Amino acid sequence: MREHSLGVRLTVAAAGAAALVMPAAVVGVLVVGNVSWLNRLDARVTDAMHGFALDHPGWVWFMKAWSLAFDPNSWRIAALVLVIWLARRGAKSLAWWVAITMAVGGVLGAVLKLMVSRHRPDLLDPVARAAGYSFPSGHALNNALGAAVLLLLLLPLTRDKPRWRAALWAAAIGIPLMTGVSRVVLGVHWTSDVVAGLLVGLATTAAMAAGHQSRRMKEPLSG
Known about the structure:
Layout: H1 2-32, H2 36-55, H3 57-69, H4 72-88, H5 92-116, H6 138-154, H7 162-185, H8 191-217
């Protein structure tokens, strides 16, 4: 029974990873290929968002605060706390999975930035600035990565608590999306950077979950 359950979860995780990698790869190819229609779409969205930001300084302040609160390092600190908590509860395998998944996602984002070397939006009257290359968005990637990791680990604890379960799903979906929007509103990322970051973060989590389930299937069954 346990082997069947693990097999189902492995299949779902692997299928999810494949389904997310494909669109992320497509976006990456379009960006590297400097496809004109994608550039025009990115420019239109950025111009519209930037115009809105210039007319709403309070919104800009909120977006800056949001980006700071959900900075990649915030997720890494949360993951470290989770790793310590899991290790103290004796769940060392899950603790290692969290640590490795967050590390792999962070390294992958950095490598992709160097490989693509895409420049950030260059606006005449910027409301914010950010260093480094643009693709993929590190904020979007790490928010999707961290939220997905926390969702997978905390969701079983809400099995008999529908309100908490709904709140957890809402946070796991809403926080990364709002973070992605904030990066475009602030003019420090193109929309395609954010989309790719979200997809890569989710794909990394799914792939690492599949790997973890596969390793568990190879463990001898107890009882």
